[in-house]
Amino acid sequence: MPDDRTPVTVTLPEGVRCALALTYDTDMAGGYAPDGICHGRTMPQLQEYMLRLCDTAERHAVRLHFFQIGNGLEPTEDVGYLREILDRGHDVDSHTYSHVPLIGEDLELLDFELRRTNELLAERLGHTSTVLRGPGGYAHGLRGRPANQQVILDNGFRWVSCEFNLRVGFDDYLDTVANPAADVCYAYDTGLVEAPIMTLTDRSFFDSVMGIDPEGRQAWARAHGHLPLPEGWMKAPWTRADALDRWINYNLAVAKYAYDHGLLCVICWHPYSHLVHDPRNRMLPALLEWAEAREGAVVCTLRDAVAWLG
Ligand SMILES: [Zn+2]
User: Fold this and answer.
1) d(CA 94, CA 125)
2) For residues 98 and 71, what is the distance between their CA atoms, to the nearest angstrom?
3) Which residues are CB-contacts of 172 (< 8 A; sequence separation ≥ 6)?
4) How far is ligand 1, taken at its centre, from the CA of residue 259, in Å?
5) What's the pLDDT at 3?
6) Are 309 and 195 in contact (CB under 8 A)?
7) 256 CA to middle of ligand 1, Å?
8) Cα–chain-centroid distance for residue 254?
9) Distance from the CA of 27 to the center of ligand 1, in angstroms?
10) Of 147, 140, 139, nearest to 111 (Cα)?
């Protein structure tokens, strides 16, 4: 694997001691799907949950950043929730058209996925995507794949966020708290800039690290996946009882590490995973209250953050 990386410097704005770039991939996740297929046609209950997240953020004067799969933007789909999210000052960017990996060999398909999503963002929302989130996450990002990088650049993106390195279990997940110091942003030789996902995602945390019954999760997905959660749903039965408390503690520990070391930290969560594992919306307020109580701790979008890379 050629190492086509050049370090970039992060220059945080005056007075900012750490920046937590919070992003949400809006996927109707394959792992919760009856047929295993991930798509972008957000179910109404999840649209409502996303707007609740925006309510929470606005109470703290924070903007959220959503990465949207393009097939949920077709003219047959209701995109009123995304229009509202943009109107309320939050950001939306591309997560490909049908959740294909950015590292695939089929460059024509990749070009179609990015171009079609750009067209739909323009037609349905009057919006232009500048940062691309790669589906799935790849241990080496797009290193050694200059042709893929070029297709992404040719579709108008200067920044991509697709590297994800964290493979841990219950016994060592806390070791990843320091990861934002290691998996830092860099430029590929083509000029495309990578902003790696620097902490455990909610999907990997709840469904793998905290998972105690993978077969139970699969059975639930086959019977109930992509359907509204029932009234009174409190937690997923396939995770440890204290999974949500541990998730909150984990993210606050990451935030503290970033604060103590003056770092930019790119965070990738999913509204659907939070709907399933945090239906009462405890995580986001906990993080925003933590930041509000600390001088120079900022929760921002990834669009904000890439402007600080040079
Ligand atoms: Zn995704």
Assistant:
1) 12
2) 6
3) none
4) 28
5) 83
6) yes
7) 27
8) 16
9) 5
10) 147
Q: Kindly give, in sequence order, each residue whose CB lies less than 8 Å from that of residue 275, ignoring residues fewer than 6 positions away.
A: 45, 46, 49, 229
Q: Name residue, tokens 């594992």.
A: 277
Identify which of 65, 100, 114 has the alpha carbon closest to the alpha carbon of residue 266: 65
Protein residues within 5 Å, CB atom, of ion ligand 1: 25, 27, 135
Task: Name the 3-class secondary structure at 159.
Answer: strand
Q: Give the model's pLDDT for residue 2.
A: 72
Please answer whether residues 41 and 79 qualify as being in contact, where contact means their C-beta atoms are separated by less than 8 angstroms.
no
Q: What confidence category does residue 4 fall into, taking pLDDT thresholds of 50, 70 and 90? A: confident
* pLDDT value of position 39: 97
The two three-digit tokens of residue 183, written as one number = 């998996």
Burial per residue of 225-240, b for 16 or more beta-carbon CB atoms within 10 angstroms, e otherwise: bbeebeeeeebbebbb
Q: Is 294 helix (H, G, I), strand (E, B) or coil?
A: coil
Question: Distance (Å, rounded) from C-alpha 37 to C-alpha 180?
Answer: 31
Task: Give the mean model confidence (pLDDT) for residues 52-57.
Answer: 98
What's the pTM?
Answer: 0.97
**d(C-alpha 12, C-alpha 8), whole Å:** 13
